[in-house]
Amino acid sequence: MTERFELSFPLPPWLRDHHFAGQAVLPMVMAIDFLAALVLKKFPEIHATRLEEAIFPKLLILPEGDALSVLVELEWLDEKRLRAVLLTRKSGAISRLLRHAEVLFTSKKKAPREEPPPPLLKEAPKPGRVINCERIYAELVPFGSNFRTLNNKLYFQGNTASGTLIVPDLPFFCLALPHPFLLDGAMHAACVHGQSFCGFVPFPVAFAAMEWENAKFLKKPGHVYETECILTGKDNGELRYDLRVWGNGGIIHVSGLMMRDVSGGAIKPPGWICENEAQYGKN
Q: Contact at 8 Å (CB) between 48 and 177?
């Protein structure tokens, strides 16, 4: 059985710092956060430590105003899995629904670790290539100041990019999840790494799974968190990454992040970043 709700999605001014091709677009992480807040309020029996089968089929361009009317569909696939979908209604001669985000929640409770797992990096990164984050946000991921989560420098080591993140002191919907800007910043690192060899600007369109531990420690504004993204595959215009974020006693792991060119070839990386093409080849 599918339930559908019509809701108002707040559009604070800082959200417009997230833009693509000259238009303000809803961040994927805020769509997840909005859906999670609704799901966990309606179904408190769901133990939120893992999300699966997330897809983001169409960018949601933000209209003028301070709120957006959206639809949310909730469907129990079985007794343990709930699918949540974020939609908008496109008016015109023929009205139709546009799907912007879809994610699977599970009610399976995960036993917590006694101690946080160790970070992926066992020693300080040895910079094969270093990029200043100010240049990243000026030329590669040109978001406004509220979405400039990567901090200081980004380090490349072969198929890996690593660096640090600082989240801003901004509100979000679901307190049971980590701060959404941590995942957003980790995806910025993957985007920059992809631009260095693939010949396009990769944008996240899906991930296989996201899990976390100690969410309450993963939302502290001003705290420095570490992140690492690892390229796991590339073919047919698609890049695949695994991501980690950790620090302050918590950890996030995203597997199977899929990134593609959503500009139709209209947006290209600047020439200076494409130094890794000889190693990987254009995709």
A: yes
DSSP letters spanning 58-87 = S--BPPSSSEEEEEEEEEESSSSEEEEEEE
Which string of b and e fits 77-96 if b means at least 16 CB within 10 Å? eeeebbbbbbbbeeeeeeee
CATH superfamily of 2-108+125-280: Polyketide synthase dehydratase (3.10.129.110)
Q: Return the domain boundaries, the chain.
A: 2-108+125-280
240: left (phi over 0), alpha (psi -120 to 50) or beta: beta
Give the angle subtended at the CA of 71 by the CAs of 67 and 75, to the nearest 5°: 145
CB–CB of 28/207 below 8 Å?
no
Q: Do the beta carbons of residue 104 and residue 43 sit within 8 Å?
A: no
Decide: helix, strand or coil at residue 212.
strand
What number of H helices and E strands is found in the chain? 4, 14
Look up the pTM and report it: 0.90
Each residue's pLDDT tens digit, 24-78: 999 999 999 999 999 999 998 888 889 999 999 999 999 999 999 999 999 999 8
Q: How many CB atoms lie within 10 A of CB 139?
A: 15
Contact call for residues 153 and 130 (beta carbons, < 8 A): yes
